[in-house]
Amino acid sequence: MAPFELAEPRSLSEAIRLLNTTEEGVRPMSGGTALMLMMKAGVLRPARLVFLRACVSAEIAEGPAGALRIGAMARLADLERSTLVRRGWPVIAKALRTLSNVRVRNVATLGGHLAHGDPHTDLPPLLCALGARATIAGPSGERTVAVEALYKGYLETSLARGELVTQVEVPALAGRRAAYMKCTTRSADDWPALGMAVSLQAEGGVVKESRLVVSAATDRPVRLASAEKVLNGKPVEERILKQAADAAVAEVAIESDLHGSAAYKKQLLRVYLRRAVHEALR
After folding, report:
1. CA dist., res. 66 & res. 68, Å (int)
2. Residue 278 CB-density burial (10 A; 0-12 exposed, 13-18 middle, 19+ buried)
3. How far is Cα 277 from Cα 118, in angstroms, rounded to an integer?
4. With left for phi above 0 and alpha for psi between -120 and 50, is residue 73 left, alpha or beta?
5. Residue 84 CB: number of other CB atoms within 10 A?
6. What is the pLDDT of residues 147-192, one digit of tens each?
7. What's residue 257's pLDDT?
8. Which of 115, 119, 278, 279 has its CA at 20 to 30 Å from residue 52's CA atom?
């Protein structure tokens, strides 16, 4: 691994100043789990790492209207074990149990998990389905975007130079039901061949409103608008679910990779969309 300088800013403004530079090889660091692997493999050779531990919050707290507020430096293990998360957003705690392994979750942070931009990560599709929003701080001040707007493509985000994710806010479930399911081709905590997140407002077996998000089989988390249109206002019947699954397969670009062919993943999408809807309503 090539030598590098480690900077530890004491304030957010100092961190942004250090990152907002035309100097090559300056990168932010939170948990560092993916970053260090890339450095060891020689894929990334930063000249300076800006460690965010002292200047970005790791607090997990309840915000206005019962929302969940998570500081970007919160470790994934802290989220998994949080009483607040388990009580109000159990789907997040459940998804975390098969996100990589406990050694990674003890170090990896939510901000790094989101900013890495790998479509195989587990929380981005779930947070998209839950309507979560990310606060981003940068040289021009703060802005807030939907989590789905963070992603532009494979390992590509909408973060500009000097910008950092500082907080994520997840709305209260407020009667909605949610599920996240993934299909792995090896162990249960492996990178998924497909991830499927569902959030539903249902009454009397009829879906009033839905948010469906697929990941891993696509180059970024993708809302399945056509499938949502099929489901909304309809009873949860196998005929309707099949129509929604067919609409989902038709509307997204499915990509082949080491975890499976595009044809295989299209079939996974048909199966896991139906399973996730049933899991959410259970």
Report:
1. 7
2. middle
3. 25
4. alpha
5. 15
6. 999 999 999 999 999 999 999 999 999 999 999 999 998 898 899 9
7. 92
8. 119
